[in-house]
Amino acid sequence: MRYLLLGLLLCICAPVSAAPLLAVADDQFAPYSFTQAHSETPMGLDVDLVSAVLSEAKLDFRIRLYPWQRVKQMLERNEANLAFAFAGTAERMNQYLLVGPLRTGATVFMTTHKTAITDWQSLEDLAPYVIGQVRGYAYETTFDHAELSRDTSALNPRQLVSMLLAGRIDIIIGDKTQLMYFVQEQNSASKVRILPRVLVEMPRYAAFNKNDQQHAKAFASALQRLKDNGKLDAILKRWQYD
Q1: In 3D, which of 98, 103, 104, 93 has the Cα closest to residue 83?
Q2: Can you name the residues that pair with 107 across neighbouring β-strands?
Q3: Which family does the similarity line name (predicted)?
Q4: Cα–Cα distance, 145 to 230 (Å, whole number)
Q5: pLDDT for residue 120
């Protein structure tokens, strides 16, 4: 009986290891977060950035990639601890605790040589055209609420580029680096044009549930240390893509 009681006490007193933190991201957001054929290993610039920050914070973690709509649902339902990388729009700031920015990306309009437009000065200049965008994405607050003809049938940026090249839409919007990545993937750089005026230089953030102040603060502190010691810049340069 004495040994049985001792065993029970040891079980009660033994520390319970916390489950690894779960970080989730878009599985179709190359070159930022994606998987290669026949592999489920997450890779990409944002994956490397978040992995480095979580390691610096000394947090046990897992990174998993899912369709973007599911990523948002998992964060909202507390099925994931953090999600990345969110645009720093007013809507997103109201929904989540945004920590960062991890990086900054240029949001641009891309078209083909079949359209007459050469640049734009106000969003009204885009009114005659059908603008393709990925369903569920937020781009920039003013644009998101502008009265424009939109096609939101694309489920990911790769599909959006394919729709533009097929002539199904006039103009698409997205991250410049990413759009060019998918254009190059289809050997179609000579078929597209990026309108010179940038919509916005959009910071990209890691998003936490508003009730998770503890992880958000730990992430923010670790991110700042990596910025200060130059390790964040080294990762960004490694993934530089023109």
Answers
A1: 98
A2: 175, 200
A3: Belongs to the bacterial solute-binding protein 3 family.
A4: 38
A5: 98
**110 phi and psi angles, rounded to 5 deg:** -120, 140
Angle between the 213-228 and 231-238 helix axes, to the nearest 10 degrees?
80
Place of tokens 């945004």: 98
Cis geometry, peptide bond prior to residue 31 (ω within 30 degrees of 0)? yes
For each of the domains in the chain, give its residue range(s) and CATH number, in order of start.
Answer: 19-104+203-238 (3.40.190.10), 105-201 (3.40.190.10)
Nearest-angstrom CA–CA distance, 191 and 193: 7
Reading the block at residue 106, the tokens are: 């240029």
Q: How many helices (H) and strands (E) does the chain have?
A: 9, 11
> For residue 65, what are the CA distances in angstroms to 68, 200, 204?
9, 26, 17
- Digit-coded pLDDT (tens) for 2-46: 443 444 444 444 444 478 999 999 998 899 999 988 888 999 999
Q: 110, 93, 231, 122: which is closest to 164 by C-alpha? A: 110
User: For tokens 């990026």, what's the residue?
Assistant: 194
89: closest CA among 39, 42, 49, 141?
A: 141
What's at 105, amino acid-wise?
Answer: G
Distance CA 6, CA 4 (A): 5
Q: How far apart (Å, rounded) are the C-alpha atoms in residues 176 and 192?
A: 12
